[in-house]
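Lecture notes, part 5. Sequence design as translation. It can be helpful to think of inverse folding as translation between two languages: the language of shapes and the language of residues. The source text, in structure tokens, appears below.
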């Protein structure tokens, strides 16, 4: 489904990002993994069954993000898919959250997404085509206690993506959003059992999702199967908070 195409994925040395990289590679894409941890990015790229590169990238830096995209275009001759996935958490209540906790999360998620979208559009507009996929969260839809920073950033990604989609649709570029719910990753499995069980109780499908299930939706958005879709938000939540 992605044969001959080049995809850049941020924050893809582990978790959902790595699952997306593996799925794209399995469908023929050349993949460039950007991650703050260069060694893990290179290891992740080496683990893929395709032509792939691992590059250090701090998504809060416009220069780093532009360089990541340039690496892809130099190595593979273009850019077809951009996945802005990089993220962090700094959970705390309003009373205990520091200004730095707030700024870091907004910078990585929201500014990082803006940097990635902007850098990708600069290349894709010349080609007259491209798919940008931005990772939000169900937290951006409903808000969670202790996540005023994360919920704000993830909601902002939806607004950013819809505005960008309107700006670039006439250039053949599509911008869509994925909002995962409770997905089984190392981060979520580290939750206290009572929190995990409480979250599971909110899911009509009565289970957590798997990273590959998010990756399959990313594949749909990256491929021509979604050729007439832009500005949309896909909830990958098992029906949580419908």
């Amino acid at each position: 489904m992605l044969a001959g195409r080049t995809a850049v994925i941020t924050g893809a040395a582990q978790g959902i990002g790595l699952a997306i990289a593996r799925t794209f590679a399995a469908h023929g894409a050349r993949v460039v993994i950007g991650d703050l941890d260069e060694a893990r990015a290179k290891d992740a790229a080496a683990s893929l069954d395709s032509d792939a590169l691992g590059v250090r990238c701090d998504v809060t830096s416009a220069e780093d993000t532009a360089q990541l995209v340039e690496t892809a275009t130099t190595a593979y001759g273009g850019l077809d898919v951009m996945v802005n996935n990089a993220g962090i958490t700094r959970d705390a209540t309003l009373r205990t959250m520091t200004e730095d906790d707030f700024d870091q999360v907004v910078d990585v998620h929201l500014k990082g997404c803006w940097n990635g979208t902007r850098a990708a559009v600069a290349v894709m507009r010349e080609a007259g085509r491209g798919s940008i996929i931005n990772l939000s969260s169900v937290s951006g839809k409903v808000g969670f206690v202790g996540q005023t920073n994360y919920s704000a950033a993830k909601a902002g990604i939806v607004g950013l993506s819809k505005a960008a989609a309107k700006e670039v649709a006439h250039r053949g570029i599509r911008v869509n959003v994925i909002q995962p719910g409770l997905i089984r990753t190392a981060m979520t499995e580290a939750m206290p059992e009572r929190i995990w069980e409480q979250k599971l109780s909110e899911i009509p499908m009565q289970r957590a999702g798997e990273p590959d299930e998010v990756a399959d939706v990313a594949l749909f958005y990256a491929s021509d199967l979604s050729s007439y879709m832009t500005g949309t938000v896909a909830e990958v939540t098992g029906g949580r908070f419908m």
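The translated text above is only one of many valid answers, since several sequences can fold into similar shapes. The chain has nine helices and seven strands.
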